[in-house]
Write a structure and sequence with these properties.
Oligomer: heterodimer
Strand content of chain A: 5-15%
Helix content of chain A: 40-55%
Number of helices of chain A: 19
Largest sheet of chain A: 8 strands, mixed
Distance between the termini of chain A: 27 Å
Largest interface: A-B, 52 and 48 residues
Structural class of chain B: alpha/beta
Strand content of chain B: 5-15%
Largest sheet of chain B: 9 strands, mixed
Helix content of chain B: 25-40%
Amino acid sequence: MKFDEKLPQGVQDALNKGLLGRLPVTFQPFTRQHLRDWEFLFPRERQSVLRLLVYLSGLNGNELAARFREVVQLEEKMGVRQWQFSTDEQTIQNASLLARSGHYQEWRQAVQKIFDAADEHAGKDQDKGRRRLIVLVLPQRLPLERSQIWQRWQGVGRPIRLDLTLHGAAKSAADALIFGTPNVSDAPNGKGPLEMAARGPEASTADAWLVEVGQDLAKSALNQAAAGTSEPAAMLLSHERLAEFRDQFSHEINSIRKDLSDADGVYSRLRKMDVAPWCPAEVAARPVVREFLRTLYLSGNGALIFGNSFVEWCASEALRRARPSLLVAQFGVRSKPKPFTSVAVFENPDQINPLPAVEDLPGSAMDAQILAHYVWLAASRYDEYRSNTVCLCLAESLAEAYLVAPAEFALWRQAEPVSLSQLRQSLTDWLAEEVG
Amino acid sequence: MKSVADFVSRIRANGSESSMNRSRRTFLQMALQTAPGLLASLNLSRFSFAGTGSHGAGGSGQRAVLVVFGGVRRAETFSPEGVENIPHLAHDLLPKSLFYADARNEGVTAHFNAISSILTGNWQRVDDWGKLAPTTPTLFEHFRKKLGAAQSDTWIVASNKALTSLIGASSATDYGPPYGANVVFPKQLMVAAVANALRAGRTGNLADRAKVESELENMLEAGNYEGLGWTVSDMADRLDPRVRDTIEQAITSFVRSGGPTSGDELTFLVSREILRRFSPRLLVVIFSDVEVAHFGSYALHVAGIRTGDRLAHQLWQEIESNPEYKGKTTMAILPEFGRDPDGSATNGFFNHRGDTDCTRSTWLMMLGAGVDRPQIVERPVRHVDLCPTLASMLGCPAMESQGTRLTELRG
């Protein structure tokens, strides 16, 4: 992974001359925290911070003041100077103070204008033109209803029929699609979508992500890597394999008293804790992934509680922060809430209630369908995924997929059922070709 | 008579996703038109204002019950797609209601501020976690101070864990706790019982209904009501025996009924017991099962909507069957806010932070004595309008409010 970029001399000089201190109060926590956490940022995030700093360091004093005038005026209206506002890091207290200000939305827009100006100053981002692939998996066990399953997608793509006959040792259609099978002819040199995503001189493992409720994909990736005596070519994040991380984190978070300052205290403690002992090997070995997870769990959105929420939020955050070429998100099954103790939804139900867990298959299917769509919607927010991206939502129990793709994607007009090998080949070819 | 569902099907056939407002309007108009028999059968004369039974204090003799849901979007409730989640609101209650189709939260879309804005008629911008009381008087304080009502006449029963007892009274000069409401958080009792059992290594008890009852009663006996966030009349170390009996009866119904066991179920049962035993003139009930959405389960969120729909209807049935309330009670039902739209940077239905119509625009249903005739009001109204409206209905003098009394209601 390439995390060895140095700050340009101009930026370093500007920082040495106190650039950060001249930024508006509400702009400082983001900037300071990102510089401090530099080693835990993904390449694309570093690029974004650099763009901002290069832009700001190129402005003289008057230009800088003019650029930030709107933000500063809003800060005065909001009374930021009277707040207990951390300029060092982004805190819950900060977020709460900003959000309940009557000028919050104006402030957000004013801040966005600064980032837009920095992007405009930096010019075209070549990386935005790369081809990308998103695979969303609704696994076999989820009961799905053919007549309604794609309604949420509102016609943005089309369903395609699949022949999901499994060959060889493949555990599932998704497994065969990503890792291939001995009986299926793969792309030249036996490469599949995973290898294609992580190719090229600028590639890093942050270009490919496998996120799942269970651990089948992670195990296959680890087996494949072991066979090739190399590291897995992707970020591997399995809800199931992160059980200890979750339990330890939940235990700490549940100790929060009903008080924002205490919440920030606990969060601060959690930010400093050594989480490596709680991680599976593939996470423990990669500090950037460990920190990604720490931030993910601290940001809520059910990632600590429900596997499908973890997959959706993890995938959405990966898209936002790393803009990978390949993202595979496999959903799964959660249990029904247990009687009485379900009120304590933030506790591990299996630890506080001895009643056996009962799977909620229809509920899990309902959750997974909307959350899979949310992953696509999350991708759609970014330029990188608005064109040149194939998104495939695989409904294993229906032998069907929903395909969102540019017209040049090979299977876009396919009428006959598509075999797994055909599909794998097409997805591999898609990532292999450069945009013209 | 055709059902609402028939008309929903017609709307689905004729409408489109891009014409949501038109679709909503048509849906609601048709929903009213579908029930001419129901409307004709309403004996409006029974909604007289001759009711008595107030506790010796002044006022109109009217009563108010306010039901507040957590965040629910229009898409999952009053829309062609969402109506299946609210069969009672849409089929049983809408045809007899005064329905405001666009009731807006223009304040902070977080729980404590949203609820305290509704209860004070002023947009509150205090601490989100209930560390600070609302800064202007609540309806409870206004009602009690101006009309001399007793504390037992005003209750708030809530599931939402973002609330604290400070929701019952403001920090305003000359008002405050001496005029505040009784505040009870039944779900907090359950959460505390679970935590207690966990600490004491008695998690086995939580799988046995009889033992769950005993765990909950142990919490009542423990006497640390402030720890539960409660404020109840003259509360010292022990609950007033009537209050204690009320809660115990609700717990018994909750545990032994064999029915659902969510926080809102217990909140409903406690509310019902309070209605039966104390007959308060002003009761606020806050349901929040829907807030499981924060954890990302859409199925459980929708289940929470269905639970709220059923419990709101049951509460209305209780009012209609209770002589202390029948014919002299106005019930208002509204969500605190919507939730964020699908595809938002705030993760859609999980949260309620967006500055969008999806998050800010909700609905308000009024039922009972204050309703002259069922109708749908399309003009936007604001959450802060409800407080001065209810105050007027209860016979209070006008209060200082950013809201305006809703003129379609009596009072």
